[in-house]
Write a structure and sequence with these properties.
- The protein is an alpha+beta fold.
- It is 52% helix and 15% strand.
């Protein structure tokens, strides 16, 4: 099966993207987001999850969480590129919410093919914030790498690097047993759960490690089938992260370009100097490359699934490298104010730094991509 024209981005996807763009323009100006998440510059401040739950309610009413939920589970059943388009727009405003984490949970639950997974998807379609708890202490989210175990019919252990755990109402947890890896749904209110917030640089997100002590949970993928579900969902998860970085990179580029055109030094705008204009052009090229790879990979998930993992790792590799470069150039070219708390650049800088390493940075993705390519050649 070949890919459709324009990565399958049709009229419905365009309308969804445009509505997301308008929503964020109307509700998420940089100064508003800065007031929401960066009100306290004290390095010793308490770790809290700052987000606008009223905006989250509006998002769910608009049907964004239902976009990629199958119609059989009460969703809209749109292709992955629809979620990628929303993620890109969210990145452009550094939107603090469990939206991206909920998309990732959706993609994993779609691969579980069970009645309990369908029920969890129904909850997501109606707006239940969800996230993945599938990473171990070393930061690995590869299949079988989990520190949560199934003992005596209960879940025990710890899941690490759980994104937006303070906002989520349910977790998709990977659990190891003698029969293999299984996936469970655990509610944030279930007995035996202890959520400890981590201190991270990204002010627009929260992260936590979650301890499970004799937690029951609801089985959504049988033991021995969970690893396969994670493998199948991985390309979509990488695409969501890549899209968010593309959006944030675009904001950094436009904001820095505007500053370079207005800030005068040595009787010339900063953009007059090659040391400024050439790196900004390189940022633009890097964003275009990462964005093209991201939409290509997202389209492949629905149309060329056999190519999806390779293309998604290419996208995440390019997006991660672009995230670091776009963020560093933005801070440098804003000069002295670029290092200050009052400058909005630091919100996007920190979001990019968090994203680029999440689920593997560029070097990690290229190492995995090389292994896939050599397997194909063998």
């Amino acid at each position: 099966m070949s890919q459709p024209k324009n990565f399958g981005f049709g009229e419905d996807e365009t309308m969804l993207r445009d509505s997301a763009k308008k929503f964020f323009t109307d509700n998420c100006s940089p100064d508003k987001i800065h007031r929401l998440v960066a009100g306290d510059p004290d390095i010793h401040r308490s770790i809290e999850s700052h987000w606008d739950q009223h905006l989250w309610k509006q998002i769910t009413e608009l049907g964004w969480t239902a976009a990629c939920v199958p119609e059989a589970a009460g969703g809209i059943g749109m292709p992955v590129v629809a979620a990628v388009a929303i993620a890109e727009e969210a990145g452009k405003v550094a939107f603090p919410s469990p939206l991206l984490a909920t998309f990732n949970a959706t993609f994993l639950l779609r691969e579980c093919n069970s009645d309990n997974a369908t029920k969890a998807l129904e909850d997501i379609a109606t707006g239940m914030a969800s996230t993945l708890a599938i990473t171990n202490k070393k930061g690995s989210w590869e299949a079988q790498d989990t520190d949560v175990f199934f003992t005596n019919g209960k879940l025990n252990g710890t899941a690490y690097f759980v994104q937006d755990a303070g906002k989520a109402e349910q977790f998709v947890v990977s659990v190891k047993s003698e029969e293999g890896l299984g996936l469970y749904i655990v509610k944030a209110t279930d007995e035996g759960i202890s959520i400890t917030q981590d201190g991270i640089i990204d002010l627009t997100r929260d992260q936590a490690h979650i301890e499970f002590s004799n937690v029951t949970g609801v089985l959504v993928a049988d033991h021995g089938k969970g690893a396969q579900a994670i493998e199948k969902a991985r390309p979509a998860i990488l695409c969501i992260l890549s899209a968010d970085m593309c959006g944030a990179g675009e904001w950094l580029l436009q904001t820095t370009t505007e500053y370079a055109c207005t800030r005068v030094q040595f009787d010339h705008p900063l953009g007059f100097f090659q040391a400024v204009k050439h790196p900004l052009v390189n940022v633009m090229i890097d964003i275009d490359r990462a964005k093209s790879l991201t939409y290509n990979a997202a389209c492949a998930i629905d149309n060329e699934p056999e190519q999806a993992e390779k293309l998604a790792r290419m996208a995440k590799s390019a997006a991660s490298d672009m995230a670091v470069y776009s963020a560093s150039r933005a801070v440098q070219f804003h000069g002295g104010i670029g290092f200050t708390w009052e400058c909005f650049v630091h919100l996007f800088f920190k979001r990019q730094m968090h994203n680029h390493i999440l689920f593997g940075d560029g070097k990690y993705q290229r190492s995995k991509l090389a292994a896939l390519m050599m397997d194909d050649a063998a």
